[in-house]
Design goal:
elongated
Length: about 140
């Protein structure tokens, strides 16, 4: 993204001095698509896209999912619940009305899950090879 004075200068060249997009891009050393974008821009105050942070359907079951993920941290990796399994269990036990996609989106963003996935340094993961590494 260009700085505001550069954007305004592109608009000035295009409208006041009637330069073409190709001339503007050559003069300023920018891509012609960038020049066209700012030359034809009318609304300088358009609103940014706001990401949705809340998931009201997940609020009643978020604590349950976090508890399950904490329990799964104690199990071997292959025995842990997947997001799809969590969704099926929620649907059966809690009459969950949300979609599987909502659960699949929530699980990786959960702080409990992020703590589980966080990798240890290489030497700690391969402690059996520490002796070999020391020999070399």
């Amino acid at each position: 993204m260009l700085a505001m004075p550069e954007q305004e200068y592109i608009k000035y060249l295009y409208e006041e001095e009637e330069c073409s997009i190709a001339e503007i891009s050559a003069k300023l050393g920018i891509n012609w698509r960038t020049a066209a974008k700012y030359a034809k821009k009318d609304n300088w105050n358009e609103a940014c896209m706001i990401s949705r942070g809340c998931q009201p359907v997940m609020d009643p079951v978020a604590e349950v999912i976090d508890m399950w993920l904490m329990e799964d941290r104690l199990k071997p990796r292959k025995e842990r619940r997947t997001a799809a399994a969590i969704y099926r269990q929620l649907k059966d036990q809690y009459n969950f009305t949300g979609s599987e996609r909502t659960v699949r989106h929530y699980v990786p963003s959960s702080t409990v899950h992020r703590q589980t996935v966080a990798q240890k340094p290489w030497r700690q993961r391969c402690s059996g090879f520490a002796v070999l590494a020391a020999c070399y």
